[in-house]
Amino acid sequence: MPLSQPGAASTTPKRRQRAQAPAYPDLLGTDDPRFWLACYLRDCAEQDALEALLQSVGCKHHWAGTPLVNALSEALWKKSDQVRTSAEYIQSDGMLPYAWAGTKAVHGEPA
Asked: What is the pLDDT of residue 21?
């Protein structure tokens, strides 16, 4: 049966379409007062993605595994440091996604 006829089986495998990732959002300018808040939220999202990737690899212990697991674990530790650093910056600016004693909004000051 020729391949041009309807219902004919194809002998070539279908190519799997590559998933398209959403566009990575641009950060605000450094002069914007919400810059470190945007960095913090971005860093938290990246940390969550790394943790999910480690779980999908099937690793229960981050300290023992394949070179891939070791590399992902190292990236997760570095990302945790970045989250901590950006949280310190927004804390010093008086902005956090949750209230704490030094938050300017609690004291009635504009953020």
From this structure: 67
Q: Could you give the dihedral angle defined by the CA atoms of residues 70, 72, 73 and 79, in that order, rounded to the nearest 10 degrees?
A: 150
pTM: 0.61
Q: Which of these, 73, 32, 34, lies nearest to 50 by C-alpha position?
A: 73
Which DSSP category does 59 fall into?
-
Of 37, 48, 35, 34, the residue nearest 80 (C-alpha): 48
Three-class secondary structure of residue 35 per DSSP: helix
Structure-block tokens of residue 24: 């990575």
List, in sequence order, the alpha helices (H) in the chain: 35-57, 67-92
Looking up tokens 């650093």, which residue turns up?
A: 85
Which pLDDT tens digit goes with each residue over 15-38?
777 777 667 777 778 888 788 888
The number of residues in the chain equals: 111
Q: Where are the beta strands (DSSP E) in 32-83?
A: none
CB 61 within 8 A of CB 73: no
